[in-house]
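User: Can you recover a sequence for this backbone? Please restate the input before giving your answer.

Assistant: Of course. Working from this structure:
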């Protein structure tokens, strides 16, 4: 059962707050149970996942014409399908050209050996 719990300290970076009392208040406001075990406090990870999924669904419903297809791609972790649905490029090939400034013959020799 403990593998289904998440320490509310782990929510600090997720929510962007440093005060644990604020995190507890956020959990209470969003109907996530806070369970105290000894000195630590936990919430049920399923409730957190469900809350995040609902927030994501609300955002997608408001901002995209095909929300069901996008949610299915997110749930299946299909990056290619999601990219196609959002009309976003999967991979952008860029070429970086660096100007190498060589100050000595030893440095030039090292670079030539390295490139070979």
């Amino acid at each position: 059962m403990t593998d289904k719990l998440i320490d509310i300290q782990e929510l600090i970076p997720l929510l962007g707050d440093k005060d644990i009392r604020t995190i507890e208040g956020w959990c209470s406001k969003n109907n996530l149970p806070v369970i105290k075990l000894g000195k630590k406090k936990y919430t049920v990870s399923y409730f957190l996942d469900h809350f995040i999924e609902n927030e994501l669904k609300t955002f997608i419903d408001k901002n995209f014409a095909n929300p069901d297809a996008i949610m299915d791609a997110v749930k299946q972790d299909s990056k290619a399908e999601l990219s196609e649905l959002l009309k976003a490029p999967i991979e952008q090939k860029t070429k970086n050209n660096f100007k190498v400034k060589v100050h000595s013959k030893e440095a030039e020799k090292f670079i030539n050996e390295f490139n070979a």
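That completes the design. The longest strand covers residues 40-44.
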